[in-house]
Every structure is written in structure tokens, then in C-alpha cells.
User: Fold this.
Amino acid sequence: MAEKQQSMEGQVVLVTGGGGGIGSGICRRMAQAGARVVILFRSNAEKAQRVLESLDGEGHWIVQASITDSEQVAAVADQFRERYGQLNLLVNNAGVTIPVAHDDLDGLSDEWIDRIFQTNWRGAFAMVRAFRPLMADPATIVNLSSIAGQTGIGSNVAYCASKAAMDSMTRSLARALAPQIRVLSVSPGWVLGEYAKRFSAEYIEEQRMMAPMQRLSTPEDVAETIWAAHNALPMATGVILPVDGGRPLGIS
Assistant:
């Protein structure tokens, strides 16, 4: 573990949605590994500040912006250039969703469809577009996807489609940005993070039992996979890395 903790010394990592449950786990893991971490948050400054204060090491930064506003994203990139010069790892973690039954077509409003795609896909693309000139050689982009993008089973139809679009973007950008920048998707199943708190203990237990490994992912599992994608898989790009305990296999 000591070697892992030192492996990102001198590197800079930017995590969108870094104040949330999964995002905070990613930030802590990268700081533990020796990186300087930039936490980009949209609205909850208090939560982002708590994450900042929990990080190992020094040189971290929190910055507020909406990734759906390309002008704000460009302004953050300018500030980042002044502070750090270059970026080693961009983690597109920010995302939104809402539970809507897949057969409830009227329940999924146009407003929510637009919000999901603007955040989950367009916002991630905006971050790549703005930070590409600042990325080191080599560098890594990790997009937080979901097995919903492959299975079509998730919180709502638009969410599943947005994650499928993110995986497609991962493949396209891996080709377009090579060889300087590797692009990967990390694809969790159910994660015991903030979203899971909306559901009953009985429902969560049902989800746990659907995976062959009979456990749900944690933010730490996701963070460790991102660490490995950046540090331990130098020949991997354009791929989707599952963090789901084998859930798509199901249990007979």
C-alpha cells in the first residue's frame, strides 16, 4: 500500500461532483496516493469544503461551476492553468437522475430528460473540451458510467441512455485523443452511496443478492478502480471497466 500511496506524487487530479458520495471517495483515494486534488462542485459548498478538509496532503482546491455551462467550465480551466499548469487525470463523475418506472413514459418529463443529458453527457464532454489543452502527456480521462448503459436497467430510460452515450463517447474520444490521452469508462452497478439512501433496506438487500459476489459496490471500490485505470493499466483505452460484482450475470 505504501508504494501505491506515493505513485501519484506530483500529479493533479480533477473530479467533477467531488463533494458527493462517490466523488468524495475518489478524491480521498487520489489524495492518499499523493496527488493534488481539485474538487469541482455545483451547489453545495459546505459539503465540498468538508471533503477538502478530509484530504491527505496539500495543494488541493475546491471550485464552484456548473458543468452544463460551457463558459463557467472554460473559466475554471483558465483558473486551473494559473494554479497548476497541467492536468494528469480528469474524472467526469458528476451526474443526475430521478427514479421513474420505465413504462411510465409520461412520468419522465422533457425537463428531466434534458437535465440528465445536459449533465451526464454534455457536461462531461464540455470538461474534456475545455481541459484537453491542459492535459499532460500521458494523461487519463475516466468517465463515470453505469451498467445501466449496457443493460438498459436503471433509474429511468433517459439515465440508461445517457450512460450508453457516455460509453460511446469514451470509445470515440479514446481514438480521437490517442496516444497522449487514454479515455476509459468505469461502470458501477449499485453503489452504496448517497443515491442508495433513498431506498429501503429491504430493497437494497434485494439488489445485493442479484450479483454473484453478493455485495454492492462502495465509493471506495469505484475509487480503487479509477486508481488502477490511471496507474496500473497503461495499455487500456476505449474500454468500459465494470465495478458491479458480476451483476449482469445474474443469479439463477
Observations:
- The chain has one domain: 2-242.
- Residues 1-5 have pLDDT under 50 and may be disordered.
- Residues 110-131 form the longest helix (22 residues).
- The beta strands are 12-16, 36-41, 61-64, 87-92, 135-144, 181-188, 240-243.
